[in-house]
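Morning - flavin mononucleotide inputs below, output right after.
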Amino acid sequence: MKIALVYKSKMGASLFYAEALAKALGGEVFFHKQIPAGGYDLVIYCAGMMAGSIDGYKKYKPALEAAGKEVWTAVSCLATPTEELRVKTAEKAGLNSEKVFLLRGKMNVNRAGLLEKWMLMAFRAKLRNKEAKTQEDRDMINALSYPTDYCDTKYILPIVKKVRELEV
Ligand SMILES: Cc1cc2nc3c(=O)[nH]c(=O)nc-3n(C[C@H](O)[C@H](O)[C@H](O)COP(=O)(O)O)c2cc1C
């Protein structure tokens, strides 16, 4: 099976996962501005979750669909990658949830653009003002205060498993 891993990465998590997936599946890695014209059985778009959306997916959808017969998305996020979040992310992107995988990413606010940094700081302030904070809130405040890296190759396992199922 010919597989292309296309990545768009601000903090580095999606690049990490694109490379890990390429190693595990034997695919080729492409920067999102160099999407191949075609010839792949499967394209996995690796990008971050930005305000609940898959960064760049809407813009690159036509090129991704032209590149491969099948397109999946591997979405790096800071929140705990739950099934509920996966379904919500798929719905927002107009995708079948079977084609969306969540992987825990990383954060360094200093790598964000000015407007993004402002958004993230506003979100942190909102969480800090919450009276009854959950552990998830506290982890989020921490990640928005100090560089945090949750990347782990264990998160690629559901994708690897699903590709193997297609191959038999
Ligand atoms: C502007 C902005 C908005 C974000 N929104 C979310 C979000 O809604 N949910 C979430 O879990 N993570 C959110 N994040 C965190 C990113 O998903 C996380 O940093 C991820 O690792 C980004 O992928 P990348 O490392 O490939 O750039 C946001 C990050 C930025 C910069």
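Note: Residues 9-14, 48-52, 76-79, 105-107, 112, 116, 119-120 surround flavin mononucleotide (CB under 6 Å).

O.
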